[in-house]
Amino acid sequence: MRFKGINSYSGSLLVVVPLVAVVLLALVIACEDDSTRPIIPSQQITGRVIDFSECGGFVTDDPIVNATYGPSCILYSYNDTTNTLSIRHENAIFNCCIDEITAEFTVIDNVIVISEDDVESDPCDCVCPYDVDIEISNLPAGYYLVIFTGPYLRDPIQFTLNLIEEPSGHLCADSTVPVPADTAWGAFLGMHGCGVPEGGVEVPESLEFYPHVTWEYDEDNTLKFGANNTVANCCTDNFMVLFSIEDNVINMTAVDSSTEICLCICAIGFDVAIYNLPMGQYHVFLYPEPGSVLPTDFWIDLESEPSGYYCPNPVEVSEP
Length: 320
Known about the structure:
Layout: H1 19-30, E1 46-52, E2 73-79, E3 84-95, E4 100-108, E5 111-119, E6 126-137, E7 143-149, E8 157-162, E9 168-172, E10 185-192, E11 212-217, E12 223-233, E13 239-246, E14 249-256, E15 265-275, E16 281-287, E17 296-301, E18 307-310
Parallel strand pairs: 5-7, 6-10, 14-16
Antiparallel strand pairs: 1-6, 2-3, 2-9, 3-6, 4-5, 7-8, 10-15, 11-12, 11-18, 12-15, 13-14, 16-17
């Protein structure tokens, strides 16, 4: 049994609603208010991707903007002197190991469709949230319906902009969940802060100060891991996990690409999920960093023990 990489999915993974249908539906919605609809010479409008973050998004000084692993959001600003709309698409979902993020732009009347995609030469078996900086030029001020599509979006997401009355803002759509085909793939769900207690599976109190891993397997074939009391730098601000899933082996590698390093360490926790994983026995390897030769490894049998915990240290525990 071999699990394919995400890049091997067929065209059916793309947004199930054809682009023409999306635009036509959007035109019906957008035409409800003609008072702010500009006359647009669409052939003059151009769009481009000017930058994109690493997995986890750009690090900023704004705690709201800097929040990752949440719903898809846009941070936008319109310059009425140059007729340029700048958009940062936050939490756009792509493969964890990409070379580039691209986008195609379609403008019909006051509807802007931005079709994002990633370029992968050596893809990983996981997805990550990215921030994508986009610039649209020669765009008259007015009312617009902006629609995003992407390879891991279940449905298109849309935002309504009135660039005359609100030339800048921060908008969020409903939470979007990547839904690949029936192939096992992993996703990093988030990190606990330094000293924050773990949740999920109950473990003995004697494990409180020891590194340990919990797991839960549900009826949707989703396996969730919680790694607790993992040693990391106190100023970790850009943490992710890479996945490799083949046969009955699950490899997870923690990656800390923080830009700021403090002279201290603390115990953190993080949560991951593996979707579309058939019930069975698996050998799990958790590497504390890329290139590590000393992983935490253990076996799990999801049929006989769908939830449990593993502690790599030989400590005496009492049942919860």
